């Protein structure tokens, strides 16, 4: 049987030729992302800023009457609602700040939800209330800080591991490319205004996991080649390593992108932002392993001397993986 | 490396079969599962509320209020102890402020006697001390909370609160709630399938502390209207007061609490035919109630629920037997809800809802249907691609991948874990890792073949060399998962759990299991050529 080849044999693409350009562009995009987040802010869901979100579907209508809803809900005296379509045209989410004093007396939040849903039902007999979320300010602050803490802890933890298993430069490279991926994803959310909630933190974690996986594979090959070709110039050695792992990189990225693309196109509307973030992250994560994590090693002066002195890292790696394999 | 002793083959196969068996109930349609459950245990994965629909309510106890309640109880017992002391110890100027209770012993000579009388009140059953006794200015006694008294009290109160909530929700009927304590002062209530939690909230949010207090009939209505009461009295809200004034003054002492009930049922008032609640005290409470009514015939007593007066009838005659009726402006529903709350006991602390989420069943069902569809299409695409690219070895990887999915489900079912939306993200990541492991191995075998190694050697090298990267990649994921579990909140933990389970099963199926199959194939056919 003739098998399919995703990447031709023995590629010799000079990936690292564009490393300065790629780094510059990445830096620019990262700055732009930070700027966007600072200027436009993220569209935080009630998970992170507290408040109330009512999701509703207008089952008999082609599209939800957003303008009219904004007016009728605004008139109820609870302040201006944030109304967004999510998923299908006839589905909306209505977000409100919790009424004054709701921290002390949850009845107030309750009354607001009831009043809004009653108003919706009165004006639109076809409305179906899909869910009501009420999160108090205190809980949302906790969710936010715990989410960020988890994110940072995960990033720091894995970088330390890489540092121990390889060399410190590799740890720096790993954390840099993770920061790169996470920053750009934040930028994407600021740009599109997609809602940023707890599920997106989970998506970010998946991106980190995947990007790191990719980085580790490239790093592993770099380590192997560093020990094999002591005399080779660093840029060529990185190119060789990237080329050798190229068909694996493409094959894995394509495989993982497949279900994600299907999820973005046909998956539940509720998780659109979530799937889109992950699909975006796969692309960025693959790119960053080649163009961020690898070239950083040149700048941090990794060379043929890196694994020489004790061969500790290499032989330790060998030992551990052998034990693990048998 | 390609050697597999027979016992190992057996062990691996047993593990696969167990994993798959445990997964089966979770993927069966509900009615078949129900039939099956009659013969064998069927552990299943719980679907999170974000997928299955339902209500999630997070309640937080008011800790300051708990301390206040403890202080109130202490004041009561102190007053009683001083009154019962022989000779009686006169005290005055009792005040509760800043979490401490202080009072003046009128005769300085009695301070030692007072301290003696206080001792049994200030230590608890285990002998450790709950309150410290201090004396200021010779005769002013100050009781301050000691050590872990407050924490222990909170802990006990939360346990009781959990039981009370459990009883109340069970009274609603067929719901299958999950009620767990979270942290020091929180309780999570999750009820699958309930998308309109109004009735539930009305039930669990009420403290249901019932008290009977004597009305202060000498109170000046003008003072009461301003919220001022005479010494020994207090003003309570009374929304349905027939006099029109929404307040009433009641005596602080001499009342009884309604926490000793054996029965509470909704009923109708025989005279007005309006909804009401009948209650029945236990024998001790009944005696107290009889004594109180006997001593106060023709006086008014207030029925106080959660600090609010619901009615203030006149005691026409002593009530023996401990049965009483509470009427106020009830509806049939509220009378029913109140009887459930009273029956299940009062909450030892006020709980307020700090987070509430409800997901309608349609949205959840839609999410599952489309999520499953997407997962099936996506996975099929991976399987086809793997087969096209790696042929026989792709097939091994594919079967291993399917077993991997089954095993994740199986382990989750066995551990009775909950699958949520973030959990699905974890699923995607581990499936990616499993595919990647096989891609790494197969690419490496290809490479080694290209370098001119013989088939068996190439396969051995492929597994060996790829294992290092697979090990490092999965170790980092384990580290991330553990940190997420430690630092994350609910949904992120759901992600972490799936990730941890998935990493183990992924490595097991994608590396160990495929190697077993490959080695069997190599031994049987002794291939000289390999298309990969």
Chart the SSEs and their pairings:
The complex is a heterodimer of chains A (326) and B (532).
Chain A: H1 19-40, E1 43-44, H2 46-49, E2 51-58, H3 66-74, E3 82-85, E4 91-96, H4 107-123, E5 127-135, H5 137-165, H6 168-192, E6 195-196, H7 198-228, H8 234-244, H9 246-266, H10 272-293, H11 295-299, H12 312-325
Parallel strand pairs in A: 1-6
Antiparallel strand pairs in A: 2-4, 2-5, 3-4
Helix pairs in contact in A: 1-6, 5-6, 5-7, 6-7, 6-10, 7-8, 7-10, 9-10
Chain B: H1 6-27, H2 30-36, E1 46-47, H3 49-52, E2 54-61, H4 63-84, E3 91-97, E4 100-105, H5 111-122, E5 131-136, E6 140-145, H6 149-171, E7 178-182, E8 186-192, H7 198-204, E9 210-214, H8 221-225, E10 233-237, E11 247-251, E12 256-257, E13 261-268, E14 275-281, H9 283-295, E15 301-305, E16 308-311, E17 323-327, H10 332-343, E18 351-359, H11 361-414, E19 418-419, H12 421-450, H13 455-487, H14 490-525
Parallel strand pairs in B: 1-19
Antiparallel strand pairs in B: 2-8, 2-18, 3-4, 4-6, 5-6, 7-8, 9-12, 9-15, 10-11, 13-14, 14-17, 15-16
Helix pairs in contact in B: 1-11, 4-5, 4-6, 7-10, 11-12, 11-14, 12-13, 12-14, 13-14
Defining key terms:
heterodimer, A: 326 residues, alpha+beta, Multidrug efflux transporter AcrB transmembrane fold, Alpha-Beta Plaits, four-stranded antiparallel β-sheet, two-stranded parallel ribbon, B: 532 residues, Hypothetical Protein Ta0175, Chain: A, domain 2, Gyrase A, domain 2, 14 helices, 19 strands
